[in-house]
Amino acid sequence: MSAHIRFISAGAGSGKTYRLTELLLAELQAGRVRPAGVLATTFTKRAATELRERVRGFLISQGEFTRADAVGSARIGTVNSVCGSLLQRFAFEAGLPTEQRVLDEARAGQLLREAIDTVIEGHTLSELLQVARRLSLDADPRGGKPPWQDALGKLVDQARANAIDAELLRGFGTANADNLLAHFPAPAKMDLDARLAAALAAAIPGVTQSLQDNAQKNTKEYLDLLVSAQRDLAQHTLAWSAWNKLTVCGSAKVKTLAEPVMEAAAMLASHAGLHADLRSYLKLMFALAADTLDAYASAKRQIGALDFTDQERLLLDVLDHPFVASTLGDELDLLMVDEFQDTSPIQLALFLKLACYARQVVWVGDIKQAIYGFRGSDTALMRSVIEALPKLDGTKEVLAHSWRSRPALVEFVNHVFATRFEGLAASEVTLTAKRLETDGTVAIADWLIEGNNAETRNQALAAGIQRLLSSGSQIMDPKSEQLRSVHAADIAILARANDTVKDIAAALGAAGIASATQQPGLLGEPEVVLALACIRRLNDDGDTLATAEIVSLADCAEPETWIVDRLEWLAAGEAHGEWKERAIAGHEPQVILETLRSLRDQAAVLTPREAVELVIARCGLARRVVQWQQGADRARVRLANLDRVIGLAQQYEDECISGRDAASLSGLLLWLQDLQANELDTKALPAVDAVQVMTHHAAKGLEWPVVVLCDLASDVRDRLWGVQTESLAAFDVDRPLHRRFVRYWPWAFGAQKKVTIADEIASLPVGQAAHADAAEENKRLLYVSMTRARDLLVFARQAKKQTGEWMDSVALGDILPKGDQSIIALPGGTDVPFERWELAAGVLSEAADAGENDLSWFEHVDKPLVRPPLKVSPSSLTGATARIVETVPIGRRIDTGSSDDRSRLGEAIHACIAADLATPLRPLDLTDVAAILKRMQAADGIDAAALRHQLDALRSWLATRWPDAIPVVELPVARATSDGQYVQGRTDLVLRTSTGWILMDHKSTPQGRDQWGDLAATYAGQLAAYRDVLQAASGLPVEEMWLILPVAAAALRVEVG
Alpha-carbon distance 810 to 804, whole Å? Predict the structure, then answer.
């Protein structure tokens, strides 16, 4: 393979998007690249749009409109969208229909979960659960998915991301068991269960006597452990984590008695039962994963759909087709890949194959920011590609400048990381700042957080944020480039775990500081609980739990109050489902429940989104939730969460359309439950002045003036015990996925951290390599986090544990000053402004909410407002006055008899006049007039010859009075009025004179002369509207206005006031 790949290494804030734009522009303007020959992939839709519009905007500014328009033909999008377009184009070669149904991520995830459930139900589930229970993999102590279920999902994801087929995956179970147990001692031949049972039986009486002689807590706990172990061992249910727990005695007083137990338990790694359980579990898990792949594929076939990974796999295969290879070789001028380091293995293989067909290849990324190993990206694979660049005739370019952060921060980050990354020279890590320094402001802050537990430490952190906001600290506004005080929205707090994010946000809220977190938990917010209770009640009038939630939340009623009312209602013999929906003596209805009852008949004909919108609007939920607090920003968050529920209802409908399923309110409620169970119900992030709180991983690609880093003393956790994919063969650029292997070593000891066999494996080369890989990824994560700040970087450290394995991986603790210095003196001569705060939890201030206690809402009205229509016909307008100033006879009066349909007759007369005047060189003859009258079903109401005579008379009068005028018939007019309405209509006839307009309107009324004054007054508003529109649109005056009466044989000149 020879691809001539140009790799651009783009450090944090180094202007990657600008460089991509610059490169693409240069190639387009030089003519070396055709717009249609560009294929560029980005990590997000937003990045794709930004790249395309930057290029287009620059070309337009240079006057290159044709080329700018042609940029639309370039394939610039996410990996999924680009793969989809190519696969659709080469559908025939791929054996697919040209119209492909592609599942979005949400629908695909739901279908995969259903496939897992199907396979689990049909599998030997009982056997798996028994083994998982002994291996302590059956339950998550934090209430999440059981570890075995979580691992199953990862096995399936890893297999699909590495193009591993089901049958190959199935065989990995035995291979993993062999690999893992090769590091264990050989199974003991003796009966270790019997040995432990004997030791327990001997120890328990002595420990019991010791406890009776001297009651101590440690002795009591140890005795409980021995007794429960004896019971479980006898029932053959003793978990291996409990075995391991018996290797330690927490009571020094009975340690001698416990020695036989500890010695027997220490034989754990040699236990044949443990070996058998690990082997059985791994074979079952990989078989289950393989069956899930088959079931998922079958489910997609049944609905005729693909997911994003299917598109990648199919495109990877079809690229070997001779016609596809030839076509792309002719067409593909430039292949650009953004965020290269975050691609999955199958995407990497795809890009390598596409690179063979492109004349130019540009990959942009930063190996220092490869932090998504837990999602399946493989840094070792990426590094192998970069190392192979010389063999591929490739080149490497390093972007050397930082455009984001102030110089002091850039120099500090350079100093911390210059020599920390394996395989990267300092020149590939350090950047030169292009921003001007912000003198007189702190660049690095060290907050020492006091507190004996997480709750008090989070309160102290909130106190630090309060102090920062009130201190007048200055940051450089990125838009105005002027110094200003820091706002809450300028600050981001980064933590390691989602649970920590929630706790920090709660502490900020208690301190009166608005915070925003894109975390799951939307359906647990009070405003959403109320909305869903209303929807459930609308859907099911028997859902009395929903009724209780509505009464409690909407009216803030105490349970003691409404429970009594409820019991009295039932005692009166009333229907239990109608409580609070209607009134009886002594029981007033609740307004929301009463409203829901009135809406229930409509629910059957509404889509789920329409029903949700109707409930929120008609029940006044927005007004109610605003009343729950004084802070305007918190009110905005609650309103945004209600909008998010509407958005989720639309997403549910879209998924139903995608899956060809029927959408219903019941289905929506079940779908929302599934979202909540899988922690996919993310909260809204409205545009409020709020501190952003998120994980370190979630901050990638973002930036803020102030960034606060938490959990710096965390341990480095490797993935030795877990799921990951590795290559069993040396990297081959032509076969990057060759011999990919999913490795899974389950942790069989529950919450136990001190396990002898695990420590021994960790000290072996395999363990050391896993830890080294984890340490490198942790360095990269710390690099990402530290480069998010533009002006101020804060290290929030526990006062009682100021250092830890994560920050020690880059010797950060040694770099930060130990005393009260105001600068950090770097070796190169740069002085970084520094300060240290010691923070403790104190009295929480409500200052952040002060001044925002004047919330208001729209005034409630009992009756709906009468709203005028958007569009108004001129004939309906009134209010103008009219005066007839001239009367002209035209032809002879026409007898219309007693026509049953005056409207149809009038339309027929109008049509004949319009057709006659529209073709002055060929006026209508009698046959034409008769045909029009017949076609419009008006022949019985008027004589065709009489109407033909009137047409001649009208044409003659017009030609005599305005010989040089140009007639225009049926001229459409429209005008916006001052109150926002639109006047729309058609003038029957206007004459364009040399100085202005003559406006005429035909009326087919047979009224006599004595009624013409009333007729003019009736249509004065219409004439005035036409006049105003004509004058406004043309700038020319309407000189005269006429009512033409062909039936009454007259023309009336009217002045309108």
Answer: 11
Beta bridge partners of residue 975, listed in sequence order: 983
**Whole-angstrom Cα distance, residue 582 to residue 566?**
13
Q: How much is the pLDDT for 921?
A: 86
* pLDDT single digits (tens) 501-558: 999 999 998 898 888 887 788 898 899 999 999 999 899 888 888 888 888 888 777 7
Cα separation, 75 vs 59, in Å, equals 17
The residue with tokens 């690999």 is 179
Q: At a CB cut-off of 8 Å and minimum separation 6, what does 75 contact? A: 38, 39, 40, 82, 85, 86
Sign of CA dihedral 169, 171, 173, 178: negative
What's the rounded Cα separation, in Å, for the pair 910 and 903? 11
- The alpha helices in 555-590, defined as continuous H runs, are 559-571
Cβ-proximal residues to 160 (8 Å cutoff; 6+ apart), any chain? 293, 309, 313, 346
Type of residue numbered 572 = A
Q: Across-strand partners of 493?
A: 693, 708
Q: Which residues pair with 346 in a beta bridge?
A: none
Contact 376, 725 (CB under 8 A): yes
Burial 192-209 (b: 16+ CB within 10 A, else e): bbebbbebbeebbeebee
Tell me the backbone φ, ψ of residue 754, rounded to 5 degrees. Answer: -95, 100
- Backbone region of residue 225 per phi and psi (left: phi > 0; alpha: psi in -120 to 50; beta: other values): alpha
pLDDT tens digits, 1002-1025:
999 999 999 999 999 999 999 999
Average pLDDT over residues 470-476: 92
* Cβ contact 354:5 at 8 Å: no
Show Cβ contacts of residue 1003 under 8 Å, excluding neighbours closer than 6 positions. Answer: 906, 1015, 1019, 1043, 1044, 1045
What sign for the dihedral angle of Cα 712, 714, 720, 722?
A: negative
Task: Enumerate helices (H) and strands (E) in the chain, giving the number of each.
Answer: 38, 29
- Token digits of residue 548: 């209780």
Q: Check if the beta carbon of residue 788 is closer than 8 Å to that of residue 707.
A: yes
Q: In this structure, what token pair is assigned to residue 747? A: 């942790």
Cβ distance 358 to 334 under 8 Å? yes
Region 297-312: what's the mean pLDDT?
Answer: 90
Alpha-carbon distance values, 1026 to 591, 1023, 1039 (Å): 48, 5, 12
SS3 content of the chain, % helix, strand, coil (to 5): 50, 15, 35
pTM comes to: 0.76
Asked whether the beta carbons of 916 and 953 are under 8 A apart, the reply is: no
CA distance 810 to 979: 66
The string of DSSP codes covering 116-179 is HHHHHHHS-HHHHHHHHHHTT-S--TTSSS-HHHHHHHHHHHHHHHTT--HHHHHHHHHHHHHH
Rounded to whole angstroms, the Cα distance separating 82 from 354 reads 12
* Residue the block writes with tokens 């775990």: 497
Q: How far apart are CA 558 and CA 527, in angstroms?
A: 18
Angle at 982 between CA 977 and CA 984, to 5 degrees: 125
Query: What's the N-to-C CA distance of the chain in angstroms?
Result: 85
The enclosing H or E element of 256 equals helix 255-265
Match 């994801």 to its residue by tokens.
157
The CA–CA distances, whole Å, from 458 to 519, 541, 653, 782 equal 18, 44, 40, 21
CA distance 825 to 491: 26
**Residue 65 has which token pair?**
């409109």
The per-residue pLDDT for range 41-63, each reduced to its tens digit, is 988 888 888 888 988 888 888 88
- Band (pLDDT 50/70/90 cuts) for residue 857 is low
Residue 846: per-residue pLDDT = 46
Which residues, including other chains, have CB under 8 Å from residue 586's CB and lie 6 or more apart?
Answer: 568
474 phi/psi in degrees, rounded to 5 = -105, 140
